[in-house]
Amino acid sequence: MHKSLLLYFATIFIFLYLPIGVLVLNSFNLNRYGMHWDGFTLQWFSAMVRNHGLMEAARNSLLVALSSASLATFIGALGAVGMYLYRFKGQQILKGTLLSMLMIPDIILAIAFLVLFILLGVSLGFWSLLLAHITFCLPFAVMTVFARLQGFDPFLLDAARDLGASESQVLSRIVLPLLRPALLASWLLSFTLSLDDVIVSSFVTGPSFDVLPLKIFSMVKVGVKPEVNALATLMIGVSIVFVIISQSLIKEKKR
Amino acid sequence: MDTNFQPVLSINDLSKSFDDTVAIDHFNLAISQGEFITLLGPSGCGKTTLLRLIAGFEKPDRGTIFLDGVSIIPLPPEKRKVNTVFQSYALFPHMTVFENIAFGLRLRNVSSQELKETVGAALEQTKLASFAGRMPSQLSGGQQQRVAIARAIVNKPRVLLLDEPLSALDARLRSEMQVELKRLQRELNITTILVTHEQDEALSLSDRVVVMNEGEIAQIGTPREIYEEPSSLYVARFIGDINLLPATIEGRNVGDTLGATMLGQQISLNSSLDFSPGTKVQILLRPEDIRLDRDIQEDMPRFSGTIVERRYRGATLDTTIQLDHGPTIQACEFFDENDPDFDYQIGERVEVSWVRGWEVILPDEE
Fold first, then answer.
1. Helix or strand (DSSP H, E) at B349
2. Model-level pTM?
3. Which one of A66, A205, B103, B262 is most buried, counting C-beta atoms within 10 A?
4. Chain A residues within 8 A of B55 when measuring between CB atoms
5. B66 and chain A: CB distance < 8 Å anywhere?
6. Predicted confidence band at B1 (pLDDT cuts at 50, 70, 90)?
7. Could you give phi then psi for residue A143, rounded to 5 degrees?
8. Domain residues of chain A, as ranges?
9. pLDDT at B80 over 60
C-alpha cells in the first residue's frame, strides 16, 4: 500500500515536471540541439544576455507586466472596496460583467481590442498593450480582493467607526492592512497573466514593441534556440522565489 | 454632579422603518447615570435596531436621541460618546490585544505615556494583562469577549452598548461573564444598555428591564416587577415559565377580593384592578407558586389531577400535572427540612392549588 502510493506520487511528479526538467537541463547542455548530454556549460546564458532582441523583449515584457499588475490591482481594489462598502444601482450588473469577462476567450478579447484601437486611432505599441493587459487582469484583481472582503466580519467596520475612526481612517487602518494578502495575490496573479500572455499581445502590439512570449514564439519557429532555454530556466527560478515569498506570507497570516 | 438631575440618555418619540417593516415605533426612554438597562425581546422586536440608532449606524425616520441633553442625531458614529460591544466581538484580527484596546485612544492622539497607562488599567480590569501581546485568533471566546469590553470601556463612553455580548459563550462561561460584567459596570459606574433575548441575563444584570414587542415597549420595570407583575400575556410568556388558567370574573366580593369561576369552581382573587362581571381573564401562576396536597393553604380552592411527569433537579422537584378538568400545570417545589425525601410516582393522584395572593390576573387577549 505504502509503496504503491509512493509510486503514484512519483508518477505524477514526473508527469508534471519532466518537461520542465528537460528544459532546465538543456539550458546547461553543451549540445546545441539537446539530443544528448555533452557536458555542463553557461554559454547559453551569456548568449542570451548578448541577444539584444531577446533582452529588449524581456525588458518590455517586465515593464508591461509590472505596470499592468500594479494598475490593475490598484483599480481593482478600489472597485472591490466600493462594491463592498456601498450599495448602488447596477451593482449586480457590474459584478456580472466582471465575472463574464473571466470566461470570454482570449482570442475574442484580442480581436475586440484590435478593432477598438483601430477605430480610436490608437497606435499599436506600449500604450495599447498596457491598456489591454490592465483590462484582462482587472476582473481577477476585483474578484480576489472582493472575496477577501467578503470573508471579513462585517461589524469590523462598524466597530472602527464606533471607536472614533472616520471613513478614511477605517480604510487606512482596518481595510488596507487586512487586504494586504489579497492585494499581493492579485498583483502576482496579474503579473503572471500579463507576462505570459501571447494571444492578446500578438494582436495589440506593433512591430516597434516586442514582448517576450511573442519573441520566443518567433524564435522557436525555426527550431529551439538554447538561449531561450536559458531564459526559461531563469524565469522558472524567479517564479520559484515568488512562490516561496507568497507561501511564507500566507503562513505568517495563519499564525 | 448635575448629571444626577438630567438623564444621560433620553430617547424621544423615536421611529425607524426598513422598507415596510416598522422596527422602532414612537419609542420613549430615559436612562440615568450609572443605570444598567436591558432591552429584552425576541429577535425582530427592534432591540438591536434601537442600539444601532443610539450608536449612530442607523438614521431614525423621526424623533431624537439626547446624550447629556444634546441631540446626537446629526453626529456620525465616530463623534458620539457611546461605545459598542458587538455580538461577534469584531476584534481587529491584524492587531494585538493591546493595539485593539488602544485603537480608540490612538485615534484621539492620546500621549504615549497616557495611552500605556490607560490601556494597562483596562487590561488589569478585564484580567487580560498577560495576553496583551497576543493576536485575537489566539484567544478563547471568553478572552475575546473581555478584549471587546476593554476596547469599549477604555474610551470612557457616556453610555456602553452591549449587543447580545454573551450569546456566543457556553452556559458556564456566560454566567461567569455575567458576574464580571456586573462587577465592572458597578466599579466604573458606567451607564449601560444591554440587548438580549435571554430573560435570565436580563433579570440578573439589570436595574431596569425594557421588554420590547414589535418596536414598542411592552413593559418597563425592575426585574422583580417584570417577573412578578407582568402587565400582559406577552411579557408573562417571555419571562420565565408560566401556567395560564382561564377564569371568568363574577364580581367584587366583600373584603376587597374578586369573585371568579375557574374550571368550575368558585374562587376569590386578590386584585385592585376592576373587571366587569363576565370578563374572561387568564390567571397567571409561576411553577414555584403552585402548591400540592398537604402544602395547600386553608380556604384555597383545590383542583384534582394526575402526575404525568417528574424531574429531579437537585434543589427542586419539578412535576407536570394533568388537571382532570383543565390544562396541564407545571409545578416546581423546593425540598425543605421537614420532608427532604418527598417524591411523586407518575400516575399518582394529587390536589393542586397555589399560594394565596401570588396569582396575577391578566385580561384574556385571545
1. strand B349-354
2. 0.81
3. B103
4. 158, 162
5. no
6. very low
7. -65, -40
8. 1-41, 55-254
9. yes
